[in-house]
Every structure is written in structure tokens, then in C-alpha cells.
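Exercise 7. Given the components listed, write out the predicted structure of the assembled complex. Treat all entries as one system.
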Amino acid sequence: MNVLSPTLEALGYLVAAVCFILALKGLSSPATARRGNLIGAAGAVLACVVVFLAEDLDHIGWILLAIALGAAVGVPAARRVAMTQMPQLVALFNGVGGAAAALVAGLELTGTIHIGNGIDIPSLATHSGHARAFFVNNAGTVHVAATSSTYVAAAAGAFTVLVGAISFAGSCVTFAKLQELMTTRPVVFPGGPVLMAGGTAVGLALSVAVVVDARDSVIQAWLLILLALVALAVGVLFVLPVGGADVPIVISLLNAFTGLTVAASGYVLDNVLLLVAGTLVGASGTILTRLMAAAMGRSTVSILFGAFKGGSTAGSTAISDRPVRSSTPEDVAILLAYARKVVIVPGYGLAVAQAQHTIHELAEVLHGKGVSVVYGIHPVAGRMPGHMNVLLAEANVPYDQLKEMDEANSELASTDVALVVGANDVVNPAAKTSPGSPIYGMPILDVGEATSVVFLKRSMRPGFAGIENELLYEPGTTLLFGDAKDSLTRVLASLKTL
Amino acid sequence: MTDGTTMLTFFVLAVFVGFEVVSKVSSVLHTPLMSGANAIHGVILVGAIIVTGHTHSTPGLLLGLLAVVLATVNMVGGFVVTDRMLEMFGRARPPKKDATPEDRR
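Answer.
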């Protein structure tokens, strides 16, 4: 439909872009976060309505059907996913976005326009300003001349296909790692870095070829397909060497990548909204990646290239047989009941065992007995920064009992019992004491400061990062083995009888 | 057509806005913010609709429709999952005296 004039179309896109800025702004503060997200959604819906009203589109029925299909897949996935599996869902959503951007740019570069008399000419940017100048002579042959903006658009398109495919493949690998479909350990193999460098070089060469061959859409189509395949391989090689604990940072980085591909496809399509929205995500995603890396005490560069140098989170899966002090649920209950102050340190193990409701009940019972209980939340507890807050919020744990790391650390010195539930790396003193350790430099919760430490663990297997925790062998430490929910239920039961 | 330098201007300004809006965010909100930003780049759906609506070949139509499906999953799924995360924050927050009805939800 051509209902909207170009001016109204531009104004509609402007409103949508403002919505996206307000969304990001709102999401930066707890009080406005939810409203911010809804404003962003409203902006996205507005943008889609504008495009239907302003553009003269064919295949509208098919497009609406495809949108319905996408919503039918996306909404239930987002509604039903367990909160513990949310990081990998976000990775997947990001990946399909990258793939969509790559497809859009590829189609736009290789599309054809119909100019009547049965003549289809190859076009770059079929309906946008980058169209090739073309002349039809008397014999009906078409001569196409590429303009300089054609080359710039071809470069932006090649960038979109290259980075979009990397983002898609990389996101698939992060999904597999988080879902534990494959090992969470860094996958490093001899020749990996060389292959990666070689793949990147071939990808860049193909991108140049796409730009140079901007005049011939058939050759260009093949070059783009080849480029996409090479980029997929590079994306896989890019994420394989990253250790499991660093994967969230990679998701954030790939998110920023997808943002930039959307921006580049906005240039190809001559669409200001895509350019602005993509750039916003690219820029904010970059900042967010750096903030997350800082929260984990890592530099982004060392995460991405550390494994190539052999320094990333390359731990062992070996189960240690050094002696530890293990305990019974009854003993733990007594220890907790006669404490004055307990700090609970929840980790991913609590989340997988779905024990957040049990821990909340335990904390309430202890409160009833006059014990002061707070939760010490490490910024990267769970699998993503802020993930644990989401999980505990789901179990109705009051917001004011959640202490961020610095606050929790200042309380731990005066704490009687630190109860570590399914966490390991975030309390591992190796981050402070052994410079050779892969997690060295990451800020940790100093549970060793508490009078006694209780670890609820499934086994002696090292944590996600695969590093042994010396704290487990300290004299003030007791261990209670078993599934976190199971152990907590039994501790809770004996606590109620005291 | 929007000329190249205008597009470049939009790009540079958007970079600064993007840096600015998220520069002070607590680690508690990193995950929802990432998820929300992820949903926003689902606006590539607009691009997917445009190319699909202008294509004249069957392979183009099929690939375009695939792009529409993928972009919709990204956009719709992204906003829904972000809302779900934030819904839980909202519930756990003690209601403030001066809170508006939306805040209390």
C-alpha cells in the first residue's frame, strides 16, 4: 500500500527510533526497566505498521503468514523456557537475527528489478537510492553502470553477510555450550588459530570481490553464498576456544555484532530506522560487553584470544581425591540454627536444581529463629551477569535481602556461616592467590572470611570454569554432598524439628 | 535517496547515543538489557519485509520469507523473554508508597 507519504514514513521511523532510545534508557534502571522494554516493543510494532503502509509491497499474504509463523515459534519459546535456560535462548534469538540480516542484505544485493517488456535487470538496492544507472538501447539490451554509492552499498552488504553469518554460527555454538550439548571447556586444536586467520582472510578477500564485482549480480550471488559459508566456519572457530564461564560475554559481543549488521543492512536498503536501531544496539552492546567483562575481572580481548594463547579457562574435569570434611543435613541445620548471621551464596547449581524456592523457605525459617540471613550475589552468579537476581526474584526473595558483591564482602567478616549452594568459581580464592589461574583477577565473594563455610555440592567435580577450589580443603569448611534441592529440603526438615 | 554523508551522520550520532544511554547500569540489569537490545535489533524485520515485498524470483521469495520468520522470532521472542525477566524483578520489589499503579505490578 502506498498510503503514507515519504514524509509521514520518515516521521514514523523517527518515532520508532526514539522509542528504541527510550527503551535502552529505561532498561538501564530497575524502576523503569519493564516500561522501557514495552516502549521498545511498541516502537518495533510501529515500524512494521509503517513499512506495510508506506511501501508498495507484493506477496503481502505470504509475508503476514511468515510473521505469524515466526511469532508462533518465538512467543511460546520465550514464554515456556526455564529461567535457567534463558541465556541460551537469548543467544539463539540473537543468532537468528544475524541470519535474517545476512539474508536481507544478500537478497538486496542480488535482487532484480522488472522494467517492463519482459526485461529483468540485475539491481543493487532495487528500490533504494543506490540503484545502478541503467540504459536500454534500441536493441533492447540493457547496459548497467554502477555508481560510486553502489560500491559503498556493496561493501556494507558484504559486511552484513560476513558478520551476520559469523554471529549466527557463533550464537549456535554458544547455545550448544550453554545447553551442554557439547563440552563447556575451550575447544582448542592444533592449527585452529591458523585456520581462523586463514578463514578471516578468505572472508575479507571475498568481501572485496563482492564489491569489485558489483556490476554482475550472478557472479555476486555466488560470491555472497561462498562468503556466507566461509563466515559460518569463522563464526564456529571464533567461539569454540572460549571457555564456558566466558560464554555470556561472547553472547553480548555477538549481540553487538548483530546490531552492526542491522545497521549496515540499513545502509544497503537506504533505511534510516535500521541504520539507527542497529547502531544503537551495536554501540550499547559494545559498552555492555565491556561492563560484563569488567564485572568478571577480565578484558574482552583476553577472553576472545586467551584460548588461542593457551590461557583461557582450560581447567580439568578430574575429580580430586584429597580428603574433605563432609557432613550430614542434621549437622548443617544445627550449625545454621545457632548462628547469628548467615550469608547465602547461590550459584548456578541452585538454579539447575530448581532450589530457589526451597532456599527462600529455609531463609524464612532461619529468620523466624532470629538468625539474620542475606544473600551474597556475585555479579556473574548463574550463567550471565544478573542471572541470579532474576532466578531469586522468581522465587519471591525480597529485593532488600539480595546484597551485591561489595556489600556482601563487607558483611562476610562478621558472618558465622557462609552457605554456598551450587557455586564454586565465584568463591574460589584462586582468583586472588594464584596468578596462573584462568580466573585470576576475577573479583570473588570472600566466604573464607566467615567463621565456617558450608558447601552444598553435587560432587567434587570442579565448577564451570574447571578449576579446583582450595577452600574446600580448609579446616573451617564442611561439605554436604547431593542435589542442591534435595540437600536443602533435608536441612529444612531437620531445622523445623529443632 | 538519503545521501552517504547524511547516513554517516546518523550513524555517528547513534553511536554516541548508544554509548551514553547504557554507560551507567548496575550489573543486576545486564542480562535484561542485553536481552532488550537483542530484541531491538529484531527490527531487521522491517528490512526483511521490504526485500520480500519487492522480490520477483521464487528463490528470492523463499529466502525472503525465511528472513521474515527469523527476524520475527528475534523481535517478538526477544521482547517477550525480556518482559518475563523484568516481571520477576517487579514482583520482588517492595511496593513504594508513591509508586504509580504500573510500578506496583
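Discussion: The longest helix of chain B spans residues 58-92. Chain B touches chain A through 86 residues (CB under 8 Å).
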